[in-house]
Amino acid sequence: MKKIDKTDTIETIFTRGRFEVDYYQREYRWGRKQVEELIMDFYHAFQNDYDPVEHTSPQAVEKYGYYFMGSIICTDSSPRQIVDGQQRLTTLTLLLIYLRNLQKQVKGIPFLPVHIDNLIYKDNFGAMAFNVNVEERNSCMQALWDENKAYTSDNESNQNLLARYSDIEELFPDELKGEALPYFIYWLKGKALLLEIDTPSQDEAHTIFLTMNDRGLSLNSAEMLKAFIIQRVDEEDRNAVNKIWQQNISSIKNVCEAQSSGNVKAEDVDFISAWLRAKYANSIRETKKGAEDRDFELLGEKFHTWVRQNARTGMKLTQPKQYKELITVELEQMTKLYLRIKAYSRQMTKGYEAVFYNAHRDITYQTYLIMSAVKVDDAPSVVDAKIKMVSAFVDIFASTRIFNYKKVNWNTNKFLLFKLMCQIRNEDLKKIGIKLTAALQRMPETLDAIQHFELNQFTGRYMLHMLARLTDYVDTRMGRASQFAAYIDRRPKSSYDIEHILPDDYQSYAAMFNDEDDFHNNRRKFGNLILLTSDHNRSYQDMNYGQKVSRYLSDNILAQSLNADAYQNNPKFLPLAREFGFASYAQFDKNAIRERLQLYTRLARAIWNPEIIKDLAGGWDDAAVIAVQKGNGNRYTVEYGDGRSWEDARKFLR
Question: With 80 as the cut, is the pLDDT of residue 427 above it?
Fold first, then answer.
């Protein structure tokens, strides 16, 4: 893409002067979805030009194409007041801070570091002044700059800033962390464009903003798709079909979330995109220079164009009756299914817990897989089983990868997951169960990795979830009501925190460890961690193990089990203690941590057990799974309509 007239690069925008955010729109509200879309747009635009063989220095970036991010509206003042665009500018600042910190971590890469500090802040007489200035956010931005992982905040915007920075850490492509990194940073500085619209006053800025965002002037993809379909329905059926469309889309819109701009998020667009991808995408973009978007990408937010071009060949729509049934039958079924997934994602529901577990970790691709698996004429009991079975697969797949320090986001695993989505599409329960189980058995990662699982930068976002799963499993096996939602709820003042069983007091425990590094390494291990309410966690901080363990009896069962008294007059716990090998500890040392790791591994094998899928499918001959494994081997490919394929190398599964 050539440079658009009157646009400026990110470097020019940020170095021209500082921005301030208008009082009425101070909240930062972008979600994970928007951050992921921005990062992947950058990634694909950069990959279109980057050639690691031909390009031997970042000077090659000068000839790369441009990427246009849209416009921002500001007042022509100093500092500039942002009227529209603060979400993008703030997210860009988070990305720049991440890239600055990443450069400090990587070693031995030529052409690093690339100087970007001046894009993030100005030197104000020796003090840092962030280029996007919101006073109540400065402490959070400073913590991200300093890589202060201990920083917390009660401010909603700051909490969201921390969450989105964590998303960037997870979602930033591994392919850009090596020798491509300096090229990407130079490309971002000099090839990503914004159109800055400056106005003399805030009143004029608001007028332009309202004109540009008048939602009545344009149709979204959902509305254009409806027009295309209804035009092809018999005239006498159009009113009825239109009514059914409106009823379903209205029910979808009722679960909308507010976007950062104050507009309503196009939930109908998200739904239709998920439906069409799940049911009709047969190809996906390769990760190589110059690769073109295929079905999966084209069925994103501009799906109406793909449907117009592929209705006959890709969707087998040739008769008015088929267009009618697409709405009256398939849309109806998929709407009900989508709303169920949304409901189970928001609130833990008995029998559908795995949907909630996945949603809590932002694993949204379970929606694609579930919608792909369910046929429009499935009986209600079959739909129920498919939701449970597919969500259980996603839970096992993601949890196993997390225990192995592997990313679980869509982009990292998209080739495997896309192929699986195509394989289980509209299949019966047993076939789906066999394919899901075979996919799990082909995974190189296993739960044995729990022996090396510990609290660190990668696991920090998952550790509370994992400990909550273990604790809740024992709770429910004892016949108690599930407390998982309470364990992971960060809103109450007395929410649950991660407790280190072994106190942070090396001098008192030095005799049990080789040296201080050995002590701290063991304190981080999974087996040294439990959940406690934050008030208990704080009150126990200065206590030794002997003092703490006596108080653990008033906490959850995983904490209680460290105390010998938990094994007295506790008939609901004792069978589980024998089954899994629970033990109490008068003193807690390296051996105790090792034994707790083994206990946690045994619990994990029961929780994330592929037999769950087999039971939901009604069982099968194990030879069927072996046959599927032999048929696919260890090669993960994506098939195209014209017969082409490429191997999804194992690096994409990491």
Answer: yes
